[in-house]
Specification:
Elements (H helix, E strand, L loop, with lengths): L1 H4 L2 H13 L1 H9 L11 H27 L3 H9 L21
Length: 101
């Protein structure tokens, strides 16, 4: 592994990893205390990991809204067009409830 990392391509790939995925795992471990899975089995640990990813993404969205200096209601209006009928202006929501998670 050390020989692979010492190549030019290996160094490039490792630099990408340091700026893309490593901070996410560090934040999950340090900020949210996620150091081990509480459940056992592939299915259950997969669900647990997806939940942690969801928490991480919600936190990122909340931080973005905070940086913009707006409240959630204003951000939702901006995204949805601010209509009185909701985010899709009365259009059909067919398929949303029928899609498997």
């Amino acid at each position: 592994m050390r020989a692979k990392l010492n190549t030019e391509k290996g160094t490039e790939e490792y630099k990408k990893r340091m700026s893309t995925i490593e901070p996410v795992f560090g934040q999950m471990k340090q900020d949210r205390g996620f150091r081990e899975f509480l459940l056992r089995g592939k299915r259950k640990t997969g669900i647990e990991f997806v939940m942690m990813c969801t928490v991480h993404n919600i936190k990122k969205i909340a931080d973005f809204i905070k940086r913009q200096g707006k409240n959630l209601k204003d951000m939702l209006k901006m995204i949805g067009g601010g209509g009185s009928k909701g985010w899709n202006e009365g259009k059909s929501r067919v398929g949303i409830a029928n899609k498997p998670c």
